[in-house]
Input
Amino acid sequence: MGGNGVRHALRRPEFLRTALPWRAAGYLLVTGVSGVLLCVGLLLAVVVAGVLAVVLVGLPLLAALALSGVGYARWERWLLRLPDGTRVADPHHVPDRPGLSAWVRLRYREPATWRELGFTVLAAFLLWPVDLIVVACALGVPACLLAALPMLLLDGEQVHVLKLWEVHSPAVAGALGLAAPVLLALAAYPLTVVAAGRAALARLLLSPGGQELRIGELVSSRARLVDAFEAERRRIERDLHDGAQQRLVALSMTLGLARLDAPPGSPLAAQLTAAQRQAGEALAELRELINGIHPQVLTDRGLPDACADAADRSPVPVEVRFDLPGRLPPAVESAGYFAVCEALANVARHSGATAARVEGRYADGLLTIDVSDDGSGGADPAGGTGLTGLADRVAVVDGALTVDSPAGGPTLLRVEIPCTPLSPTRSA
Output
């Protein structure tokens, strides 16, 4: 509920007939009750942590209190829908690793966590009395005036209105009842203004800042670019497979038929044989190019079968074992596949290994792929073995690459990518 929007709504003649005053009253009532519960909870937690701090047990609890604002801020952002229905974005980033420790480390480093803690303290010890007092005055006072006449008729002698004065006359009590709707209508204006002010304060402290918005947009744009890049790779692979490759196959067959019709041993037959051989070599190179762009087996059958296909083409014997809960996002499968291909290429070119092993598994939201060999080790990202480019490719999907390659071997390359499976079918 921005300032301009509130001023515009208050000036409208039909303001009292809209739901805005009641939404404002509900917002202040809920935030006031929440603030009371929050105040009690924080005080109890501080007392318990302070007592236990004598034996050092309460120190982790005191440290955890700094994160209490994260949960309460999420509740407050949800409550901001009550005044005018608008949503507030979450300013926090997604951890690059699954698990509680990664989440806690990230939250302690984010400025939004400390803004939320400040707002939580403000809501627990200052804002909730204001919220409840405003609601009590705006709704409670007219309700007491409206109940004056019924209470007097039930008592028969007198009624205490607002605990301030005694009323003995039914006429006076009836007049107070008639004044109640007028007072309620007048109170709707300051009630809405207070609710709008509190909502504006909450948005200021709980919404993403300028830098956080830019970072979030960069993350979103990077994800869009990754998806677009993968879609373009698949389109190029499909066009080459269905277009140029089929034409080369047809050309090779035509040259073969022409060679059969040429006189044996003639110069024409020799030229046709050479042309057919060159067409076959071009076809093989094109197939390798297509496989390097985006292999069809990866699209059709998924990461385990694609890695098994890459292992079959490796000059070094490779054992492949995967345990996945199903298909993964295309960008994740592509990054994992090309990581395995690059690792197997390094094994064949630089390690002198006699055997290699590829293992993939999925647990706790993390895809882990290990490529190990029994070679001489000594892999260095600065040595031009493609590890730097591979790390960049994995980082695009928020993954991480680690290499353990002591001199003399063995070498272990590990790729970790956070993701969520697309289907429940287990593949191995």
